[in-house]
Design a protein that fits this description.
flat; mainly alpha; 0% strand
């Protein structure tokens, strides 16, 4: 193990020397130094930050003792803009009273057909059959039968 490490280090050292010799033949080190001196970055023209000036509002001098006890009135008009959020449209809930559920016989028949199909598939592909519950499809518009003349004629057979 020690011999292989020494051999590896020797090969590595030879490769580094060979690469340095090739770089010297191509004069790449001189070119890179020349590029560094030619292209020196210019200092950026940064804008100087302006100091913030705090405004002091001029208030009339109060000469009356009766008025001096109260705070100085503010004559500045302040408008508050309330952010009015639009009302959300009431989402229409589906009527669950007229849902049609499959009978136990039809459900059992569908499960048997699925198991036969699973058995007929090749064994090299992974497969899994599980009957869906009504809760899986109650809100699932993506599982509904497509509407239209073509779909009603072809699928309804």
């Amino acid at each position: 193990m020690v011999v292989s490490k020494v051999k590896y280090e020797e090969l590595r050292r030879q490769r580094v020397e060979d690469n340095q010799r090739r770089l010297e033949e191509l004069c790449l080190s001189l070119l890179s130094q020349a590029l560094k001196t030619v292209h020196s970055p210019k200092p950026s023209n940064k804008k100087k930050a302006k100091p913030r000036v705090t405004r002091t509002e001029v208030v009339r001098v109060r000469r009356s003792l009766r008025v001096a006890k109260t705070e100085a009135p503010v004559y500045k008009e302040v408008t508050y803009h309330e952010q009015v959020q639009p009302r959300r449209a009431a989402c229409s809930r589906r009527d669950i009273t007229n849902r049609v559920y499959a009978s136990d016989e039809r459900r059992a028949g569908a499960i048997e057909k699925a198991e036969k199909l699973e058995a007929s598939l090749e064994a090299e592909y992974p497969r899994f059959v599980r009957p869906m519950l009504p809760s899986h499809v109650s809100g699932g518009f993506w599982l509904e039968k497509p509407s239209g003349k073509r779909w009603n004629n072809d699928i309804g057979r």
